[in-house]
């Protein structure tokens, strides 16, 4: 039996699935690193760190940047800097506070809907599918971003990274969505772009779709074995029994 036939509701990941947030995240990460006089990472590297929430993002950024600075010093004949007097956890907290400040300034202007997202959500909403959003992004940033992008009204339930004890890949956020929507887990489809999304869906007993264009740590999403793999967001429509056409793409500047 096609698992899609049981679907009565849909939940979506945010970063890398609905929204290209890499420009805004990169700006905030690099500005925070710069403020601590550390090497900046750049978008290609930051993309590989996205997906586990802001604390993990900044921990990865700090680890890389400290190593990069010492590598740069070694290359120029300078001694490495010993940070033993400042625990890395404390440095990570400092960096996280800086990140929050800079991300608040860049999140909305540095985030864009991926192609096909707007009209696909509209079609699913019109068909009556209850929809939810599940993201590891810090909760205070989520609602303003959805409003700015014009998609907030599509979601009956929004779960941010601060709304649950256990973030994805733990099943807790998806089980909470299923409960709030009054669905059994197998009636909920979860659409994401990373292994954390697929692992969360598998652990919760939800059907999963993996999008190939996202931020999956540089890995192919097929390695996580989602139930379905799509290259374009509007491929959800025929899979759920709805028509779509290639000329419905909505561009966002």
TrEMBL record:
**Organism, per UniProt?**
Phytobacter palmae
Q: Which family does it belong to?
A: Belongs to the HAD-like hydrolase superfamily. CbbY/CbbZ/Gph/YieH family.
Q: What class of enzyme is it?
A: hydrolase
Name this polypeptide is given: Phosphoglycolate phosphatase
Instruction: Tell me which InterPro entries the record gives.
Output: HAD-like_hydrolase_sf (IPR050155), HAD-like_sf (IPR036412), HAD-SF_hydro_IA (IPR006439), HAD_sf (IPR023214), PGP-like_dom2 (IPR023198), PGPase_prok (IPR037512)
Q: Name one Pfam family in it.
A: Hydrolase
Q: What keyword terms does UniProt attach to this protein?
A: Carbohydrate metabolism, Chloride, Hydrolase, Magnesium, Metal-binding
Q: What is its EC number?
A: 3.1.3.18
């Amino acid at each position: 039996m096609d698992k899609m036939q049981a679907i009565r509701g849909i939940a979506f990941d945010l970063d890398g699935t609905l929204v290209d947030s890499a420009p805004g995240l990169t700006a905030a990460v690099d500005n925070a690193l710069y403020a601590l006089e550390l090497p900046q990472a750049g978008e290609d590297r930051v993309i590989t760190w996205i997906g586990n929430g802001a604390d993990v993002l900044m921990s990865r950024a700090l680890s890389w940047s400290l190593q990069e600075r010492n590598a740069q010093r070694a290359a120029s004949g300078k001694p490495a800097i010993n940070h033993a007097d400042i625990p890395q956890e404390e440095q990570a907290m400092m960096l996280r506070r800086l990140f929050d400040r800079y991300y608040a300034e860049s999140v909305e202007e540095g985030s864009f809907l991926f192609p096909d997202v707007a009209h696909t959500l509209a079609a699913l909403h019109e068909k009556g599918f209850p929809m939810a959003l599940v993201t590891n992004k810090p909760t205070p940033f989520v609602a303003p971003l959805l409003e700015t992008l014009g998609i907030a009204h599509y979601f009956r339930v929004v779960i941010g990274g601060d709304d649950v004890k256990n973030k994805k890949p733990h099943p807790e956020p998806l089980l909470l969505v299923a409960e709030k929507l009054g669905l059994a887990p197998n009636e909920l489809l979860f659409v994401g772009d990373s292994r954390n999304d697929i692992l969360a869906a598998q652990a919760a007993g939800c059907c999963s779709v993996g999008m190939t264009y996202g931020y999956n740590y540089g890995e192919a999403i097929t390695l996580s074995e989602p139930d379905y793999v799509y290259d374009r967001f509007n491929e959800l429509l025929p899979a759920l029994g709805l028509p779509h056409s290639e000329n419905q793409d909505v561009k966002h500047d």
